Amino acid sequence: MEKTSFLTGQFLLAMPGIGDPRFKRAVIAVCAHDEEGALGIGIGETIDGLGFHELLEQFEIDPGNVPDVPVHFGGPVEPRRGFVLHSTDWGGQDTIDVGGRWALSGTIDVLKAIAEARGPSRWLIALGYAGWGEGQLDEEMTRHGWFSTAGDVDLIYDVAALDRWTRGFRQAGIDPRLLANDTGTA
Fold first, then answer.
1. What is the pLDDT along the chain (186 residues), one digit of tens a residue?
2. Does 186 map to a domain?
3. Which residues lie closer than 8 Å to 97 by C-beta, 6 or more apart?
4. Residues 6 or more apart whose Cβ sits within 8 Å of residue 41
5. Does residue 25 sit within a domain?
6. What pTM was estimated for this model as a whole?
7. Is residue 1 part of a domain?
8. What does residue 15 show for φ and ψ, rounded to 5 degrees?
9. Alpha carbon 153 to chain centroid distance?
10. What's the number of domains the chain is made of?
11. Which residues span the domain enclosing 105?
C-alpha cells in the first residue's frame, strides 16, 4: 500500500518569512487534501468588527442566546463565502467529516441549528478559505513556508485566535521564537 502525505485533518502553521503577507502567522485547518488539490480554513485571525450576530442577521436568523463570537478570516479565496468548522456531533446535508477530527459545513442549515441551540456542541465561523490547485500544496511543502502538525483539535475551540500560531508550534514541541525567517543552502 502506497503511503500518502496528504494533510487532511492537520494544521498548517506559516513559517516566519513565508513571503505572503496574507499568511503571516497563519494557522490553517486543512479540511481536504488529495491529488486534486487542497482546501483549508484559516483559524488564526478574526475579522475586525464582524460578529456572529451580524452574520446571522444578514440571513434573517434570530441569534437567540448564542454568543456573539468573532468571525474568522478563513482565507483569501471567496472571502464572502461562509464556513463552519465544528465538532462531529452534528451533521447537515453538506457536512464533511475531516479525518474524524472535526467537521466542515458551508450551508445555512448549520447557522440555523447553532442559533436554535440544536447544532454542534463546538464550532467556529469563518469567511473565505485557503485553496491550492493540483500538486500546489505538495510543492509548497518542499520549500520554506509551511509547517504541518496534527496538533490538538482543541486548538480550534479552546485557544484565542491570536494565540493559535504560537500554541500550534508549542504543541509540536517547537519554540516559535527560535524559528528562522528562511532556510539555508548547502
1. 334 468 999 999 999 888 888 899 999 999 999 999 999 999 999 999 999 999 999 999 999 899 999 999 999 999 999 999 999 999 998 999 999 999 999 999 999 999 999 999 999 999 999 999 999 998 888 888 899 999 899 999 999 999 999 999 999 999 988 886 765 555
2. no
3. 88, 91, 103
4. 28, 29, 31, 72, 74, 75, 83, 85, 104, 126, 129, 130
5. yes
6. 0.91
7. no
8. -80, 150
9. 11
10. 1
11. 11-178
